[in-house]
Amino acid sequence: MQAEYIISGQVLSFEHSPFDANTPEDAARLHEAVAIGDGKILAVGTKAGLRADHPGAEVVDHGDHLILAGFVDAHVHFPQTAIIASWGKRLIDWLNSYTFPEEMRFADRAYADDIANRYLDLTRANGTTTMCSYGTIHPESVDAFFSAAKARGQRVIAGKTCMDRNAPDGLRDTPQSAHDDSAALIARWHGVERLSYAITPRFSPTSTPEQLEAMGALWADHPDCLMQTHLSEQTDEIAWVKTLFPDARDYLDTYESFGLLGARGVYGHAIHLEPRERDRLREVDAALVHCPTSNTFIGSGLFDMAGLMADGHRVGLATDTGGGSSFSMLRTMAAAYEVGQLRGTPLHAAQLLWLATQGSARALRLDDCIGNITVGHEADLVVLDLASTPAIAQRSARAEDIWEAVFATIMMGDDRAIAEVWINGKRD
Ligand code: GUN
Ligand code: ZN
């Protein structure tokens, strides 16, 4: 097949995980150019070689900009876009003070459409091409999000948030309606173009055992869907879960005993895990999602990235908008680096970039189609200017290799570093 575009720069692809490599940089390869057509990556190689093979392609030359797979954000709440950076509360108070009142507004489909588009504009400007989002309890919020993503040709995952207790009037469903509304959304959206559905019980404190059981039954009926929820984010939350589920062995057991633990389970935060929980999560090869700006912003704790990776866990990286304080995966990588430093285990730039692309794609079980620049993958790309501000430019000018150069952009970059974004083989 002939390519439509040849995009040249420093094209970064991963051959394997930089957490497995002897030295993290050995996991990565730099190429001169990537050829894309019909929404797919057709070839990587030298610019001259690709031009010879694809003489009709338009060449888009990005000089020495760094070209990566588009960022993948493994855990977000698009409905919290307008309340990001709300001051001074910890998790439960933050939910009650800021989040629930805002989520109430999504009963209005026009508002949901507005925020879905605003969120996708903001994240595209930050180089994020795929995300896994919670909706609100309103099925219309998921319709709004999927409709907006479909119009942009974007690969996204989302689900209706289910809550039938410990949430205000107007923000509760029932075990039956949560099941039926989620099933109807799966029928309407799951597998349509690039969209897929995640069954979404918010977290154990806001679901009765009956609702968790209904969610488990729904997942058993739709095993190809992801199931996303929150796990062990704050110590107060864990204590509350103990009082709500006195017979549970631990927090994870409140999911496990209702059929909500599995390989396609995606567990946000997962900071304060018991040994049994870690063992079970690894045994079933479930995904854990590190949300570092959220974990520091809401005061939750320090995710054990090094320990979990060494034990072979499947881990993704996420903003957790709007508990997280940024829409940017660059800022999120910087926060992951800082959390690693506080634990005495700093992450290499190659590991940070891998987590923000392939790691998150693996967590969402999408690594066969996105998250790397490799032949056959979908053409979602981000082009990074490694000298986007004077502060970054003067530091990267001193860099001795690509890792030092890109690390300055990871630590200090923002949407000004995003030179171009390609979604499904098309430029924005
Ligand atoms: N736990 C339950 N709901 C939420 C949420 O919306 N954000 C975060 N950070 N944690 C949660
Ligand atoms: Zn969350």
Automatic annotation (TrEMBL):
Pathway: Purine metabolism; guanine degradation; xanthine from guanine: step 1/1
The entry's keywords: Hydrolase, Metal-binding, Zinc
UniProt keyword annotation of Metal-binding present: yes
Reaction catalysis annotation: guanine + H2O + H(+) = xanthine + NH4(+)
Cofactor(s) named in the record: Zn(2+)
Aminodeoxyfutalosine deaminase/Imidazolonepropionase-like composite domain boundaries: 33-57
SUPFAM superfamilies, A to Z: Composite domain of metallo-dependent hydrolases (SSF51338), Metallo-dependent hydrolases (SSF51556)
Keyword hit for Hydrolase: yes
Annotated GO biological process: guanine catabolic process
Cofactor, free-text remark: Binds 1 zinc ion per subunit.
Domain Amidohydrolase-related: 67-426
Pfam families the UniProt entry points to: Amidohydro_1, HUTI_composite_bact
Example of a GO cellular component annotation carried by this entry: cytosol
Entry EC no(s): 3.5.4.3
CDD domains the UniProt entry points to: GDEase
MF annotations from Gene Ontology: guanine deaminase activity; zinc ion binding
Function: Catalyzes the hydrolytic deamination of guanine, producing xanthine and ammonia.
Family assignment from sequence similarity: Belongs to the metallo-dependent hydrolases superfamily. ATZ/TRZ family.
Name of the protein described by the UniProt record: Guanine deaminase
Source species of the chain: Phaeobacter italicus
Gene: guaD
